[in-house]
Each structure stands twice: as structure tokens, then as C-alpha cells.
């Protein structure tokens, strides 16, 4: 039995939300699955220690357009898949499966859009596998990698090890860096802390600002590390506090309590799937009203973030 799963969304968080359903499909079919996914989802690094995957087929710009479509269909056809599960309502992927010669096609209702991402995936997969599924992702890491990271990065149990997710996909989704500096100082006064700054190479300006702040002696930045190196560091931490980013979803999937600050993205869709994510939304908004174009970065209560962090550290 050869099984293909198509999950075409861009983000790390998106891919982790689908993790329970990928595993459920592999288990139902008693086989490792092939995954068609974008490189930006970082699937190969996220799932490096997992055992439900056979291979990852990259979905990129070379697969776009008519020529790209037929190039990809030839690539898939030569693998001779028996089944495909498509987490998407696009007619393009249904045709792709047809032209690739796959006999059994399971797909979202055509033209599905503006859905609650985890709910649609859950209902679809439960119909396919015939059982109720948890929405909670559980990302597996090798124990030896977690132990090695603890030693390499001097993570100890005498301090509270906190990930600060200061990055974001755009300025409207980013709580101001001065808030994070103030929060770190206040938390460090409350309990001895070490802060791991989760940010990418494009965040040099805000990273530099936190590096020259008063918490500079109590932090380590992750900006130059790969996702595979970052995963075991996060696993060793006590708490995530930060914007709605891939780092938040990684933390939640690794069982770390995560305070997610939602200012301009769908809070319910990207927090409601996990008991590990505690969403903080702008004053006057709810978890379901906070979405794209909320533009609430200046309306997030500092005290609410601090009090939630304090409570979780206890």
C-alpha cells in the first residue's frame, strides 16, 4: 500500500496543526506515508525523528502553471500511489491525483475556504479513518538530542528557561520589542530566568535591540540555528511567550505551555487546537473576533501577559 498526503499550506504552524491527522492516516493504512508539502513548512526538519513518513515531495515554484502541473503529475505517477488524501478543496489537486493515476482519492469538499483549519482537518480525517481524533499534536524528538541540547546550551533546572517569540510574519502581528524587554526584566525580578530569543535572520533589527538591553546577560538568541537544532532547545524550556509564529506551534507540539499573543491573525484557528496554547488577544476583542485586520498590537494588556506568565511559572 502506497499512500500520498497533500498538505500545501506554507507555514510551520500549519504543518504542526496537521500532525495528528498525518499520523492517523499512516496508522489507518498501516504504512508510512509520502507527503507533498512546501519547503517553507520545514517538514523535513520538524519530522526528522518521526516514523510515520516515507518521503517528502517538495511543492515549489517549479510545480506552478500548466507545465509545472504535468511535471509534478509525472513525478507522482512514477511512484504508483494507491491512495491520496488531499487537505485542500482545490480542483487542481483533484486533477493532479487523477492524472497521476491514483485510484482512491479522498479530499476536502471542493472549494473549501475560510475554514477553521484544525476543525476541517479533524472532521475530514475522522471520516477517512473512522474514529474520533484529538486535535493535539505531539511532536517526537530523540531523547539523546534533548539531553545533548541541555548540556550544549547550559540549560539547568535552577533557572526558569523561557522562549521569547519576538519574530512574526509582519509588523502588525508583532508585539512591540520594548514590551518583551520590560516583560523579561520583570520576570527576572520575580524568578531567575534565562531567555531564548526565537527569531529569524530577517529580524536582526529587533534582535539587536534586545541584545543591548539590560537582559543581555540572561539571553541566548536562536537566530543562526536551524529548526532541527532549535527543537531540542525548546523541549528543555519551561514556557513560551510570544507572537503567533511557528515557534509558538513548535513549543505547544513539544508539550511546552505557550502564551500566544494574537494581534492580527485568527486566534481561534491557531490556538483552539491545543491545550498548551494560552491566547492573549487585544482588549475589547475575543478569541473568535481576533483575526486578520484586527490591528491590535497596541491594545494587548502587558499586565495580562505578565500575570499569565507568572501563573504558569508557578
Topology, pairings included?
Blueprint: E1 3-6, H1 12-17, H2 19-29, E2 33-37, H3 43-46, E3 53-58, H4 65-77, E4 83-86, H5 91-99, E5 104-107, H6 117-129, H7 143-152, E6 160-165, H8 177-190, E7 193-197, H9 204-211, E8 219-221, H10 227-235, E9 239-243, H11 246-253, E10 258-261, E11 277-280, H12 302-313
Helix pairs in contact: 2-6, 4-5, 7-10, 8-12
Overall mean confidence score, pLDDT:
96
Show unreliable segments.
none
Q: H/E series, N to C?
A: EHHEHEHEHEHHEHEHEHEHEEH
Shape by Cα distribution: globular
Question: Structural class of the helices, strands and pairings?
Answer: alpha/beta
CATH superfamily of the largest domain: Glycogen Phosphorylase B
- How much strand? 15-25%
End-to-end gap: 49 Å
- Whole-number count of domains: 2
- Helix fraction, binned, reads 25-40%
CATH topology of the largest domain: Rossmann fold
Q: Descriptors for this entry?
A:
314 residues; single chain; six-stranded parallel beta sheet; 16% strand; Rossmann fold; alpha/beta; 2 domains; five-stranded parallel beta sheet
What would a concise description of this structure say?
The chain is 37% helix and 16% strand. By secondary structure, it is an alpha/beta fold. It has two domains: 127 residues, Glycogen Phosphorylase B (Rossmann fold), CATH 3.40.50.2000; 171 residues, Rossmann fold (3-Layer(aba) Sandwich).
Amino acid at each position: 500500500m502506497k499512500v500520498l498526503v497533500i498538505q500545501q499550506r506554507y507555514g510551520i504552524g500549519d504543518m504542526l496543526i496537521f500532525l495528528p491527522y498525518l499520523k492517523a492516516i499512516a496508522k489507518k493504512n498501516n504504512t508510512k506515508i509520502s507527503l507533498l508539502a512546501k519547503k517553507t513548512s520545514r517538514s523535513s526538519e520538524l519530522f526528522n525523528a518521526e516514523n510515520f513518513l516515507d518521503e517528502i515531495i517538495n511543492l515549489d515554484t517549479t510545480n506552478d502553471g500548466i507545465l509545472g502541473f504535468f511535471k509534478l503529475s509525472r513525478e507522482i505517477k512514477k511512484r504508483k500511489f494507491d491512495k491520496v488524501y488531499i487537505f485542500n478543496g482545490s480542483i487542481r489537486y483533484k486533477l493532479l491525483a487523477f492524472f497521476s493515476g491514483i485510484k482512491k482519492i479522498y479530499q476536502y469538499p471542493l472549494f473549501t475556504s475560510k475554514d477553521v483549519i484544525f476543525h476541517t482537518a479533524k472532521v475530514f480525517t475522522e471520516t477517512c479513518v473512522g474514529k474520533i481524533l484529538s486535535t493535539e499534536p505531539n511532536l517526537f524528538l530523540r531523547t539523546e538530542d534533548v539531553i545533548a541540547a541541555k548540556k550544549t546550551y547550559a540549560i539547568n533546572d535552577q533557572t526558569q528557561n523561557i522562549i521569547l517569540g519576538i519574530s512574526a510574519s509582519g509588523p502588525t502581528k508583532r508585539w512591540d520589542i520594548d514590551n518583551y524587554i520590560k516583560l523579561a526584566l520583570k520576570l527576572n525580578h520575580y524568578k531567575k530566568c534565562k531567555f531564548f530569543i526565537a527569531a529569524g535572520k530577517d529580524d536582526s533589527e529587533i534582535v539587536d535591540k534586545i541584545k543591548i538591553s539590560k537582559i543581555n546577560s540572561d539571553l541566548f538568541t536562536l537566530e543562526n540555528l536551524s529548526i532541527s537544532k532549535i527543537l531540542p532547545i525548546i523541549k528543555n524550556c519551561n514556557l513560551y511567550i510570544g507572537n503567533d509564529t511557528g515557534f509558538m506551534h513548535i513549543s505547544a507540539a513539544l508539550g511546552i505551555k505557550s502564551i500566544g499573543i494574537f494581534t492580527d491573525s485568527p486566534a481561534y484557528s491557531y490556538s483552539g487546537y491545543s491545550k498548551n496554547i494560552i491566547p492573549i488577544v487585544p482588549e475589547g476583542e475575543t478569541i473568535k473576533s481576533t483575526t486578520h485586520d484586527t490591528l491590535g498590537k497596541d491594545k494587548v494588556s502587558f499586565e495580562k501577559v505578565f500575570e499569565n506568565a507568572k501563573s504558569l511559572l508557578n
